[in-house]
Design goal:
Helices cover about 35% and strands about 15% of the residues. The protein starts with 7 loop residues before the first strand and ends in a 7-residue tail after the last strand. A hairpin with a 2-residue loop joins strand 12 and strand 13. It has about 400 residues and is an alpha+beta fold. It is built from 15 helices and 15 strands. Strands 1-2-3-9-10 form a 5-stranded mixed beta sheet. The protein has a 5-stranded antiparallel beta sheet with strand order 4-6-5-7-8. It has a 5-stranded mixed beta sheet with strand order 11-12-13-14-15, covered by helices on one side.
């Protein structure tokens, strides 16, 4: 007579309840390794910047340089020129998409994702400027704004001032932001070009790319792409990443083609078939990740990458997401690059004492980053400092 079966670990870090055939429980550490693998951070890949940007469904890009650092961390031999040329050649653009924040995406994704995420832009506008725009004919405002930015690229300040000539009793910032919502505005070069400077000037995506918005992607296809790059994930995670609501309905339609798991808290996780799920003992070398990296912004429960106790140290009150170091796959400190008098210094501030191997690996990665980000500086140095933060 066989003994009854009970929970057992699978060979790569999950727990299977064989008595009820309930979904595999994925440990936090295994979710971490899945994330790192899908984010191309378990080892640099020999891929094009275009393919990586597409796979990641864009990189968050409030500031011009973080996407370059994000690609450097993921692509073997990545050069600044590859991304800069993509932007000049209109193969990639900067536009408000997920969470109504600026993302760097391929031209194809710009045209396809913006209609899917239009509701996010609408809700953001209503929440921030609804009262100031009450009674305004939004269709007329959108048409006027489109005409202005298609005549020549405009900054929001310029756009607001010009629109106020037609709506003199309205706040110019509210008017400009309404156009940002009503018209898919892309930021044009030199904004976003490595080593160049310039204010964020905008024109319409349709004019810049010479094509209309596309219906080639719907919410279901977008969620499948999110899971391929960030999964397994809960419905709440999907909503946090995208800014959309009511995605439970979308996921239920997708359920027959998804695999399901549970996390250690019992939440249901969804995933695309055959996506990598490395074992939880897969090595993860120390890494330097950029400001605003989407890994830190794409989950309701961020503990698969960012321990709760460190979150206030990385997320600032004014909305900045700081550049971080990863040790054993988890956020474990901060880094900052500063230039002064011909010297570029990379300061690394771990939240706890470093082991010898971790220090050496961070030193190597830091010098590599200095060559990439500050190759023109005569002198480079990597400086380790003790954390000044009380945990």
């Amino acid at each position: 007579m066989q003994e009854p079966q009970s929970d057992r670990y699978d060979e790569s870090g999950g727990i299977q309840d064989t008595t009820t055939s309930s979904p595999l429980v994925l440990s936090r550490r295994r979710l971490n390794r899945a994330l790192l693998e899908r984010q191309l951070l378990l080892g640099r890949k020999c891929l094009s910047a275009h393919d990586v940007i597409s796979h990641l469904v864009g990189l968050q890009a409030q500031a011009p340089n973080p996407p370059y650092i994000g690609l450097w961390a993921r692509i073997e031999g990545f050069r600044h020129e590859e991304l800069s040329e993509m932007m000049v050649d209109r193969q990639a653009v900067r536009i408000a998409l997920q969470r109504s924040t600026i993302h760097l995406v391929t031209a194809r994704d710009c045209l396809a994702l913006r209609p899917v995420l239009q509701a996010v832009q609408d809700r953001g506008l209503q929440g921030a400027y609804g009262r100031l725009l009450a009674g305004v004919d939004l269709a007329a405002l959108g048409a006027a704004g489109r005409a202005l930015v298609e005549a020549q690229p405009r900054t929001f300040s310029e756009l607001g001032k010009l629109l106020r000539e037609q709506w003199p009793d309205r706040d110019p910032q509210a008017l400009a932001n309404a156009v940002r919502t009503l018209v898919p505005l892309v930021q044009v070069p030199p904004r976003g070009i490595w080593g160049a400077s310039g204010q964020a000037a905008h024109t319409s995506a349709e004019l810049w790319l010479g094509q209309p918005l596309s219906s080639s992607i719907d919410s279901e296809a977008m969620i499948l792409r999110y899971l391929a790059a960030f999964g397994p994930a809960t419905v709440k995670d999907m909503q946090v990443w995208s800014g959309l609501t009511r995605l439970r309905e979308v996921v239920e339609r997708l359920r027959p083609q998804l695999r399901t798991f549970r996390d250690e808290q019992g939440s249901e996780l969804f995933d695309v078939p055959d996506a990598p799920l490395p074992s939880e003992d897969t090595p993860a070398a120390p890494k330097l990740i950029s400001e605003f990296d989407n890994m830190l912004l794409s989950y309701e429960d961020r503990t698969r990458i960012l321990p709760d106790e460190y979150r206030p140290l990385v997320f600032t009150d004014n909305g900045i997401i700081k550049s971080a170091i990863l040790l054993d796959g988890y956020v474990s400190g901060l880094w900052k690059l500063e230039r002064k008098r011909g010297t570029a210094a990379l300061t690394i501030e771990p939240f706890a004492a470093l082991s010898g191997p971790d220090r050496e690996a961070l030193l190597e990665e830091g010098n590599r980053l200095l060559q990439f980000a500050a190759g023109e500086s005569k002198h480079h140095e990597v400086v380790f400092v003790e954390s000044r933060i009380n945990l």
